[in-house]
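Supplementary Methods S3. Input chains for the assembly prediction are listed below.
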Amino acid sequence: MTTTQETEALRRSALEHVWMHNRDWTQMAEEGGPTIIVEGKGIRVTDSEGKSWIDVNGGYSSVNIGYGRTEIAEAAREQMRKLAYFPQGTTTEPLVRFVEKIGQIAPGSLERTWPVTGGSEANETAIKIARAYHKRRGDPGRYKIISRKGSYHGATGGVMWLGGATGLADYEPAYPGMVYAPQPNPYRCELGGETPSECAVRCAQAIEDLILFHGPSTVAAVIAEPVSSSATAAVPGDEYWPMLRQICDRHGVILIADEVICGFGRTGKMFAMEHWDVVPDIMTIAKGVVSSYLPIAATVATAEVADVFGGKDNIFRQALTFGGHPVAAAAALKNIELMEEEGLVQNSAEVGGYFLEQLHQLKDDHESIGDVRGLGLLLGIDLVANRDTKERYPTELHLGERLSEKLREQGLILRATDRGIGFGPPLCITRSEVDEIVAGVDRALGSVEAQLPSA
Amino acid sequence: MVSTLDAEALRQSSLRYLWMHNRDWTQMAEEGDPVFIVDGHGVRVTDSEGNTWIDVNGGYNSVNVGYGREEIAEAAYEQMVKLPYFPNGTTTIPTIKLAEKLAEITPGSLSRVFAVSGGSEANETALKIARAYHKRRGDQGRYKIISRRGSYHGTTAGVLWLGGTPSAGRDDFEPMYPGMVHAPQPNPYRCELGGETPSECAVRCAQAVEDLITFHGPDTVAAVIAEPIAMPQGAAVPGDEYWPMLRQICDRYGVLLIADEVICGFGRTGKMFAIEHWDVEPDIMTVAKGIVSSYLPLAATIVKQEIADAFAGENNQLRHVLTFSGHPVSAAAALKNIEIIEDEKMVENSAEVGAYFKEALEGLKLDHALIGDVRGLGLLMAVELVADRDTKARFEPEAKIPDRLNEKFRKHGLIFRVNSEVLNIGPPLCITREEVDEIVHALDLSLWELEGELGVAQLT
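Predicted structure tokens for the full assembly:
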């Protein structure tokens, strides 16, 4: 434990020098400065004042194996002592073992891996590969990328415009070639589909319509998360992914599955695409591949796509200093090995199923829960002011902020927004830990509902 | 050492599964590649067959403290055992200490740190901050970014189109990102604007940046981004007028000045940051590589407090999130790395041994007609080869100079990647004079051999 004095000094320093996510330093100062997390084990972390928290967010839905796995630290240390780094061009043993492993566990003919350091870079690389692939094949007009409204694919220039998140006005003008399709969210189907199937079919069809409208010879790729975490774990109807695959094939468009959040057991399968037996042309992975213990991510392409770049003067031109980092690769390998040995993918499916049941029960007690959904341990609650109209609470009520505050009082690290709550805990979670979380959410929702005007 | 059998199995696996930088698997298969590096110490690395190499490239000019520093492995291990990760919305002790350290050692009022995982992300973050900064201040129209031809700032879409050369192969990724404006590179050896001295070139190239700002309209320009010394141009050191003029020009038009210290920072040029050679304070500085000597992925965007404060206050924060931003294990490794650089006076060593290295290269120039120019600062140096010294004429591509040199350097035990006639040198900063002598000797031999093959008349 850090002393109170040390904590205060660290807080002052953080307020002065750290540019944090989603928080502003003047407001944080008023609230007494940031929480400083110092230690973690399983699904729990401890702050500098000795208070223990349950990390229901699992980092950013990214600490799949849980905190405190010293085996990964041992693997990273061993590699760092031997060889801390070497750029690609030559290569290193852990990097090759890592890409070999990915090639073996990735669906279908996905087998050639371009390693990078984070999800944004992985999606940037996927898009660059897609555009270059068409150019190399003499189809230079294909540059447009279709993504779905409400999806999220990263923060760098090429990918932040995908999905069209709010708050992008700061960074205009947009990257050229962005085309937006509807999100197949069965609870709020933009195209009025009344069942998951109907919504799925209409939303997939909308993508074909967009391809035809823009002209297939201008479209490079479709990118989508198998289950969209930013749409609060909206699971598409079973027709969606097989239809997308067919549509892309029909029009020569590359299909990119963004498994950054879904991959590595998050949805109860190693990769979420396995739920629908669909093999994309390119798959991107990050987060769970290394349970966030170090920065690593990758873009995995089928041999058919990668082979377009075979031959000496035909290489894919891209270099990243830290792409294929041997220490991060060694950590990722150990992480995957532990996940397999300990059956964490199965645990995600089983405990995730139990978690979903508990959330359904919660719905019976809380009018503000409009929908409960998800797969495995990627789960979500959609919050509504009125269940019949599915209307949301007005922003001036600051529902998200109030709820986050109450969840915090329950000892839960769990972000809530005006629209809902997303769950992505470590996959090592147990049923009794789920009970603790659900009890905390129950109390937090109860006390917020008591403060809100009844709908 | 990896056993021979293992090495062959690994090699087959890498040919099938790995999509490598700058190399193609069909060619590697033919040539018996790739080489596996298994071990490193100081400026040397060892491959799976037990061969030792001197790494003249220092990774990607990025392994500043050299290979084999176990202290960094221990620091990373300790942090990973305690807390391997936590997102950057609360925070962690190493993230705070690193931000504090960077604020302390960077010039002037640079003091607010957004930590990321690589140079591309750091420059992306810098551009996003620059564009958003103007918008927050009610100056909506400023979105263009001025960079210099021949510079390199990264590979993700927001930064890929900055700088660049015709041979970069970016046509694969068209269309270009909006708002890219390109200025001349102040390379005194090949001044695009005909300046005949470093000063003349510097003044003309800085003036060209001002002309672009006034041509486009200052109220459309968000920022100028530049490396203090551009590595892709072969360590082209601008005349002393350049940076002070850029600072004045940016101030005159309300344009933010971004210094990309991804390669130059952390002692590479003989100062902690290269911008210190000219006493100029940028509005935003980006760092990567040397900050952690590449032991783990880490980079940062460091911003003047005045600029950062445009994002203070409720509902006014910068909207920019990256999972691995401010990674505590990378931060712990970086802190230990900076401590080693300071304790062992590696910045001073870079200045001193760098000067010795440059002198030795100047000596080589006396013997080799192929050497057109030797340049650089500290341990960021380059040798430029030419077909004709008087006209500075370049070799025809058919002469395959890069291929020939790569093969010779390999034969002489150097890891020294060449992809043009500009040979970039960026070894670890712990290098000694004896090691410099070894490198220069191998370079000397390689050039003799090349001259023999090309039938170039010898100077002595």
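Chain B has 14 helices and 15 strands. The two ends of chain B are 43 Å apart (CA to CA).
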